[in-house]
Write a structure and sequence with these properties.
Blueprint: E1 13-23, E2 28-33, E3 54-67, E4 73-84, E5 95-102, E6 105-112, E7 122-129, E8 136-141, E9 147-151, E10 156-162, E11 168-172, E12 176-178, E13 183-187, E14 192-195, E15 203-209, E16 212-216, E17 221-224, E18 227-230, E19 236-242, E20 247-254, E21 256-259, E22 262-265, E23 269-271, E24 279-286, E25 289-295, E26 302-308, H1 315-320, E27 330-331, H2 348-357, H3 361-370, H4 400-403, E28 415-419, E29 426-430, E30 439-445, E31 450-456, H5 510-521, H6 524-528, H7 540-550, H8 553-562
Parallel strand pairs: 13-20
Antiparallel strand pairs: 1-2, 1-3, 3-4, 5-6, 6-9, 7-8, 7-10, 10-11, 12-31, 14-18, 15-16, 15-19, 17-18, 19-20, 21-22, 22-23, 23-27, 24-25, 25-29, 26-28, 26-30, 30-31
């Protein structure tokens, strides 16, 4: 983003993904992915394979951006995300608790590492109800399938479970979430629409004057098609509260003329932004087709869908919903005439603007008098505040997703990215595309909004993969583990005698070889030679400078093979 404006990701040059996977044995492997195609029209996806006994996965996206205000200087950009997995394998536990949802009803399942049911075991549950401070503790026993039926759990916001082996898991039961704009602007008399899925009884609308509630306007509230509609508001300030979510909205209303996205009134100026927010208004299943209905979809709207066997927490929303976005701005019309006093001293804030924008002091003094500078001080058109990002700590069940082991599931979770709604705002997918998973997440986003819903389809048989050592080694024969490095020339082949007991890793670029040696050796001096990877792109003067600084036998050998003309 540049200020409050979205820029095309294609402006980022030299994008690169660096993926580091670490096993439970502490073995780290790093690989790089280049030639990425960044686009404003879709989310970047990359499919990767991970090693057995994965404990941690770290992904870093880097690139460069040209800063025109700095004479075209290229600055580095980077973003990193780390996931922790299979923490259960660090313990002696052989079974764990999982929460599933089938067609609206929750089921707790006590399963072993092979997916086998653990029957006749007492599990202690802790249920927390919305609006109540004290949770309820209940002890229940698993049946012959290792299951405990919990029902629909109306009003329950959190479930905790403690298994007999001491394993504890926690789940926040959320069916929908979205990004919110805490401040709303509207013209007098127009309909204000706020996205909301919930009972009308949990809403309140109060008029505010001088910081005090003066009138109840709940009669102006109506719920329709996934929105709260507020009608007949007169100029003034209002406070809308969603009691269930303990979320408050400030609504400012004025009369005035709409110009360039602003409502210019007699006493205040209000920016009109995001007046038609994206919303998921319905999900239906019919004849093997899942249909998702969106409201206010635009050409920038994209929909992502994922399906899981167990409760996913906030899943996709926690991972993607934290993008930067800005709220609305407001200001007060200037009342005094614009005056100019020769030799007037300007403050530090305005000197900062002079330095960074190149404005002369005369122009700046005029802006100061008109109240057009940052923050809206003195009147005019103010600046917008950045909206708070969703709490990523709710990325999944507390401790459950990261600490359990799901290797017994035969197939990975199906995910479908970058779906486009049709002209009616509907996205349709075949039920078969979700495989043997029933808990579905739907995430929709555009440039300013993100909406997420999850729902459960009827249960379907899930395929489990046998994790037992079915093909063990013959105890009569001797066996050894051997590591080999083979240089494979162009056109040659390498044959593995037994692929089932072999692990193969290929290094076919200088970048991958350099990353391998850097990971294995940990030698800081090796990192200093990373510039040789960009040798073909260096100019002659840069090559001479690098050679003068790093000349050695190894560099001479490299140049003799890779750049004979320079050597």
């Amino acid at each position: 983003m540049l200020g409050e404006s979205h820029l095309d990701p294609a402006l980022v040059t030299e994008p690169k993904l660096t993926i580091t996977s670490t096993t439970l044995d502490g073995i780290a492997t790093t690989r790089e992915v280049k030639d990425l195609k960044l686009s404003a029209g879709s989310v970047l996806t990359h499919t990767l394979s991970v090693p057995e006994r994965l404990a941690q996965l770290t992904v870093t996206l880097t690139g460069k951006i040209e800063v025109l205000s700095a004479g075209g200087e290229k600055r580095d950009l980077s973003a990193t995300r780390t996931w922790t997995l299979n923490g259960m394998d660090k313990t002696d536990a052989t079974n764990d608790g999982h929460l599933s949802k089938f067609a609206g009803s929750y089921v707790f399942e006590l399963l072993g590492k092979n997916g086998e049911a653990v029957a006749d075991q007492q599990v202690v549950f802790n249920f927390r109800h919305r609006g109540f401070a004290n949770p309820q503790n209940v002890a229940l026993k698993s049946d012959e399938q290792g299951r405990i039926a919990l029902g629909t759990l109306p009003g329950i916001v959190n479930v905790q479970a403690k298994s007999p082996n001491g394993r504890e898991s926690s789940w926040d039961l959320d069916d929908n979430e979205r990004t919110w704009s805490s401040e709303l602007h509207a013209a007098a008399g127009e309909v204000v629409r706020v996205p909301w899925i919930g009972p009308p009884a949990e809403l309140s609308l109060l008029e505010v004057k001088a910081g005090t509630f003066t009138a109840d306007h709940a009669a102006r509230l109506a719920q329709k098609d996934g929105f709260i509609e507020i009608t007949g508001l007169t100029p003034g300030d209002y406070s809308l509260r969603l009691r269930g979510d303990e979320r408050d909205f400030s609504i400012q209303v004025t009369e005035g003329k709409q110009i360039a996205g602003w409502l210019l009134g007699k006493h205040r100026n209000l920016e009109l932004k995001n007046t038609a927010p994206l919303q998921i208004t319905g999900v239906t299943t019919d004849k093997g087709v899942v249909a998702i209905k969106l409201a206010n979809a635009t050409v920038f709207t994209r929909v992502h869908i994922a399906a899981s066997r167990f409760e996913p927490g906030k899943g996709i929303f926690a991972g993607l919903g934290g993008f930067a976005r800005f709220g609305v701005a407001s200001g007060t019309p200037a009342k005094n005439p614009n005056l100019f006093a020769a030799g007037r001293q300007i403050g530090d804030e305005y000197r900062y603007i002079v330095r960074d924008t190149g404005l002369d002091e005369l122009s700046l003094k005029a802006m100061q008098q008109a109240g057009m500078t940052a923050g809206g001080r003195g009147g005019g058109l103010g600046s917008a505040k950045q909206e708070a990002a969703p709490d990523k700590s709710a990325a999944g069940p507390g401790g459950a997703a990261a600490e359990t082991n799901l290797d017994f599931l035969a197939a990975s979770e199906p995910t479908i990215y970058n779906l486009l709604p049709d002209k009616d705002g509907v996205v349709r997918i075949d039920r078969k595309a979700l495989g043997d998973r029933q808990h579905v997440q739907v995430y929709a986003e555009d440039l300013t909004n993100a909406a997420w819903q999850s729902f459960a389809l009827p249960e379907v048989p899930t395929k489990f993969a046998d994790q037992r050592l079915a093909r063990n080694l013959d105890p009569v024969k001797p066996f050894t583990q051997r590591k080999e490095v083979t240089v494979l020339e162009k056109g040659k082949t390498l044959t593995l005698a037994d692929i089932l007991t072999s692990e193969l890793e290929t290094y076919d670029t200088l970048g991958s070889v350099h990353a391998l040696f850097t990971t294995l050796s940990g030698d800081a001096n090796l990192a200093k030679f990373a510039w040789v990877l960009q040798w073909p792109q260096l100019k002659d003067a840069e090559k001479l400078a690098k050679y003068s600084e790093f000349a050695c036998h190894e560099l001479n050998f490299f140049l003799a093979r890779k750049d004979a003309a320079f050597f």
